Structures are given as C-alpha cells and as structure tokens.
Amino acid sequence: MIDSRLVLDASIVVKWYIPEVGTLPALEVLEGEAEFHSPDLLLLEIGSVLWKKSRRAEIQQEEALRIMRGLSVGSIMLHPVAELATQPLEIALSTGLSIYDSAYLALSFRLDCVVITADWKLVQKLAGGPLARMVRAPKPGLDVSRFCWWGSD
Q: Which one of 18, 32, 39, 50 is most buried, by most CB atoms within 10 A?
C-alpha cells in the first residue's frame, strides 16, 4: 500500500469544520505529508451531515450554509464516482456496507491506499475481515504518521 496517499471520508472532513468529539485527531490528519483523495460524493455527504445537524438544532441553518459555502476541499483530489464503475456495488453486496462507504473503499483499492475515517461503526463492522486492513481511524494524541488499526495498541 502507498502510505503517501489517503482516502478521506466525510466523517473526518466534517470534523475540520464542526468542533465535536474526535475533532483533534481529525485535524491531525492535516499535519501529514500525504495526498488526500475522496470520491466526489464527499460534498453531498458533508451536506447531509450539515442538514442533519441543523435539523437536530446542533447548528443553526446559517452556520450549515456558511460551512458549505466556505468548504475548502482544494487539498482533496475528488474522483468522480462514475469512474469506480460497479466496484462500490460489489463491495456493498459482499459486505453489507452502504454504497457510500463502499465508494470510499473502492477508491482506496484503485489508489492502493487506506480509507481514514472517524466512523467507528464502519471500522468495527470490518474488523477481523479481509477489508479491515483498508480502513483506519486515528487515535487521539497520535501523530498522523502513526495511524493504528482500531483496537490495537
């Protein structure tokens, strides 16, 4: 696997804009030297998170719009999901993951790198299986270059 590339999912990127549990380790990702990649559905997923947080009154509608308008993904290379063909569906059908999570995994296969996520449910679902090596989550307080497999020391 190529350590100089990382696929980032929306759970990491959202934490760059909204202070919440896990924000500091998500910000540590920015300190690394890696190239960042995501499927272009990242923007819709971030919009969905902002919508949900607004509906739950966790943030104001104006704040959600401000974040979306100011969203800077220039440091993230966005890849059209159309280029991934049927691979996200194949992954979803074989794992039970959502098609969205599967799109991040499909891109990580294409780029020969890992997905960095703050979605512990995703990490747990894949733990112990053949795809566990493809998904990592930063542990608080660790240098980004020392990503750990979930549950390991």
A: 39
What is the pLDDT, as a whole number, of residue 39?
97
Residue 124 falls inside a structural domain: yes
pLDDT in tens, 90-130: 999 999 999 999 999 999 999 999 999 998 899 999 999 99
**Eight-class DSSP state of 82:** G
* In the chain, % of residues over pLDDT 90: 61
Structural domain total, the chain: 1
Q: Is residue 11 part of a domain?
A: yes
Buried b (16+ CB within 10 A) or exposed e, 49-76: bbeebbeeeebeeeebeebeeebebeeb
Would 153 be classed as within a structural domain? no
What pTM was estimated for this model as a whole? 0.84
Evaluated on CA atoms 100, 102, 105, 106, the torsion sign reads negative
What burial letters (b/e) apply to 100-110, b meaning 16+ CB within 10 Å?
bbbbbbbbbeb
Q: Which domain holds residue 110?
A: 5-146
Sequence letter at residue 133 = R
Which pLDDT value is given to residue 2?
62
